[in-house]
Batch of 2 targets.
Target 1
Amino acid sequence: MHHRPAAYVLPFLLACALLWPSAVAGQSLTGFTPDRAETQRACEAQLLDAPESETFRRHLKRLTRTPHPAGSAANDRIAAYLDSVMTAAGLTVQQYPYDLYMPSPESAHDTEVALVTPVRKPLNRQEYVLEADSFSSHSNLRPAWNAYSGSGSVTAEVVYANYGRKEDFEQLAEMGVDLSGKIVIARYGGNFRGFKAKYAEESGAAGLIMYTDPADGGYADGLPYPEGRHLSESTIQRGSVLTPLGGDPLTPGGPSLPLDSEAEVDRLDPAEADLPTIPVTPLPHGSAVEILQRMTGEAVPDGWQGGLPFAYRIQGGSDLTVHLSVDQPKDMVRATNVVGTLRGTKHPDEWVVLGSHFDAWTFGAVDPNSGTAMLLTLAEALGTLAENGCRPRRSIRIAHWDAEEYGILGSTEWVEQLEDSLKTGAVAYINADGAVSGSRFGGASAPSLKGPLLDAARAVSYPGSDRSVYDHLLTEKTASSDQEPAEDTALLGNLGGGSDHVGFYTFAGVPSLGAGFSGSSPIYHSAYDNFAWYSRFADTTFVHGPALARVDGVLALRLANADVLPYDVARYGTDLATHVASLEDRAATDSIDADFAPLHAAVDSLGAAAASYREARRAALQSGERLDTEAINRILLDLEAAFLHADGMPFGDRYKSLYASPDPFSGYASWMLPGLRYPVATGDEALLREWVPVYTRAVTELTVRVRTLTRRLQER
């Protein structure tokens, strides 16, 4: 690479800033002194001009040439490619290996599902080969399977369980439907597939078949693939059924370091791990129809009818039997995270972490490798910036996680291994799993990062327009709600479960977010999630991947370079007020008695303290007077820890965050204030009264820290 002489770097960068659109150049930068804001704008101008569509396209095509599930040789080659690209970009790359208890991709070959009566008929478990999609005939494609299925063989009658949600199984029980020894068939949607298996097993079922109904992304929504983007009759969603999501099942709470390492790792016996025991398999709706259309029992309740052209029924009857057999051995399998670091010049032990997993069920063009390709594109852009004099003050780490698809394994192990360092030095985690599947920008975030994310979106032009990504987001939200949403409540969502942020946010208390450009992707976890589908339906000109690299890059640079970390502290107060009021209303609706007044008072105090802090920060940075930024940022880095509860939540000790967790009954959805939400959801009045003081103390502690920050800012 060509190195520009250092004496010319800053004038060059400032000239770049002057050439950039005035809306960007004049944007107020939270957390920066005026002098350092000018330097930051210059670096941002260079970044905004760096990511190119062809670069993103090239990386995505390379990453998706072949199926590469975790544990395969193909996935190891992807890891090597990630290492080589980031090394060439000037990042220092480190690999983090783990030995995890999981199935091999070869398990796909050891599953059978067939009609037995009234006709004997094997059922298809693989997508059709399509002339319009050369990837569909790839020799390494395997039949669909579910990781962590139990092993077993059963021939039995069938029962339809709608989406297989907790409430669906409860309704079957109320109807007097006996599931003992039966095979349950349920459609995807409504909850994480692992909970479908969990509830089926708890109900006495001997096996589970899952399929994606055409009512949920198929011909009801548009033309099926390859004519259109939607679900075809052979499209199959693969996926893990491990619950809870998050880490190796034999080492809960600690890293599953390699067997040949010197570290002592306390592993459970597999018999002690809470793993599914019944056989589970996915089917396309073209195979599920062979079962569903032959069912003869009573009609389904309201809301249970799917999109196939006949009346759905609860039971198949004694004349309809299905055979399901799964032989899925598990063993210790090596998985490796690949992490590149652009070392900070002033605070190298403080990290801004951006990440996406790279293992895929098949090709993974959308999920996950649109995010992987975006991060490689960003890594190269950041490397060029560093060469041109824009090396960050804090370290930026770009992480590629392995074995996410089997249960968020790789990222969780990394968090468990580096938990102490993350708690003291992690500024933020920015997730990019499957980040580009369309043109609609959106995101979900911890309160403290909502403002910074929206500010970064204001700095980036929406592809092919003279508006910013923020303006486009505002227009989309306004159009969908018929009124302009309030920025602080409606533009961004709250983080749930199901991806690599879980360990960072709900275990370690690192402020986290996920953002991207989305669109309908009914090919999720199927063989059609490939470069052919992506280039026709997701991002035809490959412009949204680079746009996201700009948004995430601007955000990362601002977090890395700010004099005072630009956390949106006030958002804690506004969001908490909304969540507490919502829970209080729900409790009242269910006639659950609890006194929320102390918690309301604590939240009000936090809001006032945060407003004072925001003004003190603005005045202090504008004054030009010397600040003890080291002490101020140390407190800021510890803010989110106020929401960590060492004993975990009432529904499980794996989730430590009082603020957010995945829904323990569905897996994917976001539960805000889970220690309160759980007793409200279960009607446990005594437990709710026990947890309101826990939250009051946590909010009070956060308020104390915010007031300390204000005093520090005023002591100049």
Target 2
Amino acid sequence: MDNYKYLLQDLTKLKGVGNKTATILKRKKINNLFDLLFRLPQSYTDRTQKLKVNELQVGKISTINVVVKKYSFPRIRNLPNKVICEDETGTIDCVFFNSYEGYIRKILPLNKEVTISGKINYFKKRYQITNPNYVSKESSLIEKIHNKYSLTEGISEKVYNKIINQILENLPNLSEWLNPVILNKFENISWRDSIIKLHDPKNIGNFKSNFYRRLVFDEILTSFLVFSEIRKSIKKIKKKNKKFTNKNILAIKKKIAFDLTNDQKKVLNEINYDLASQSKMFRILQGDVGSGKTIVALISALNVIESGYQVAFMAPTEILSNQHYLLAKKIFPKKVKIDLITSKTALKNKKKIQQKTENSNLDMVFGTHSLFQKNMNFSNLGYIIIDEQHKFGVKQRKALSDKGGINCDVLLMSATPIPRTLTMTIYGDMDLSIIREKPNIRKEVKTYSKIDTKINDVIKFVKKEMQSENQIFWVCPLIEESKKIDHQSAIKKYEFLNRIFPDEVAIIHGNIKSNEKEKVLKKFLEKKYKILVSTTIIEVGIDFPNANVIVIENANKFGLSQLHQLRGRVGRGEKQATCILMFKSNLSENAKIRINILKQSNDGFYISEEDMKLRGFGDLLGFKQSGIKNFRLADPIHNQDLFILAEKEIKRIENEEKKLIKYKPLIKLYDQAEIINDLV
């Protein structure tokens, strides 16, 4: 069972791998033998065909049999060593830089036949090979197809192949972990045979083969096994069930101008069921922009407060925290004691709030990360709500769940709709709730595209909207002008618009300090500015009810999902909202497709699916940079069927199998053990 441990050995255990080579590999995040196996060959060099000297072609890698005839070892520093070789058809020089005389004599003994392989050059009317890749008295060692890997500086193709071949020769036979039904789908190929085939040069790029798909499935299954164990470990925690009535829904219904959608009701029932159960809730609520997640979260928070517990509601920015706080203040019964704590809260007030939370004199606190600082203690925390935190990784989420204590339920919310396979990959450790419907009072945002030469038409439209007391977002992709990219910068656009609409235009971007940014957004919210020029930092879910127009410059430079998120900043009120996508005349076909999809649909989930197909899952909304799982082989786009199969298999495992011992090698090998070390 433990023969998998061979693959987890340090690189220095390999013959020919010293500390220097190991350090080079570790810089590329290759830490053990297993990691090496998943650095796939990119192409190959065919050294099987032997040529005569007179058949050689300059610039080609060739293999020849020659006899060593003469040495030339100059006594002047920095000059290369030269060995003259020949066959019956001609002469060739082997030139060596930075090689010792003794080493050359050893590999190329006088009057002996040797096999040499390398790139052919022509110098002073003679063929030559500079620093040959391979030299051997045994031609069978060279006359092969040699894999080309994505190498790191300091490691040659020859050395790399030797290392890989050494591992493959000693590859252990591991006990099969896949059940027979699943294994049959991959024609019963073993893990070991799959790995060997993976490094066979004949199979480079063969992504649809059974061996490749089997390894993809192993990787997906590992990820799902880990998530399953995390879910089970959280569900095992027995808490006091929360007891509440439905009166809070009725009370809030009277204060909001719309009925809850069917999706909102469904999700609220899912959350309430978890709250009322004796198992700890660990749930992600996904909703399209403007779908009404916050209302659902606030109603469930009231239920927790009714049960005698405290609630912490965390948002990524101070302005969003304040917005949630003001909404709660508006719709909550007056008897409910709530407060707001941010970096702007005066020290004196902070201490008061901290004392109140410790003494159970506060029911609910809104804020940013400061909610979970050391000096912030809750006497009876029963519910944590985190808004717009899609960049929380598995470890951070687990730590958050633990922090709240046994009786504390956790709800994460995200206005970033993502495809199902990606949801499984990112949030597989959590129960999932989805809101797709939008409240009836929300009108779909009308989306138009305009070539940038029609800027005057856009200005006329903006002027008309301003006269109707509407506000406008104007989004630019860059902060300053770039010579490499011909985008209009946010700063230049601000200057341009300010000349047309003096004193009515503001600007925010990533280089403005956070407190200044907050001031500008607050003034815009208070209608002191009519136009806000911005980079993409306005994506995060702040409500600007009076903003009904968004102009997005160089829309073709944004991803679909990002454009949808930006568009979601308008249309938060009852008025008709408009999105104008501006672009230059030389659009690519891909850009045309993206813009047309956005014009045709307001469905964030459909848009994210299309975006993933066009851009790849790694680039979607920056998930690649956010600690989200990076698969070695699996791809949520191309391997959707295997994700679905793994999902079904994990349900079978959860229902039928009690222990993970069978899957221990799988989990250990795929480097997931750090998360659930105590479970296997």
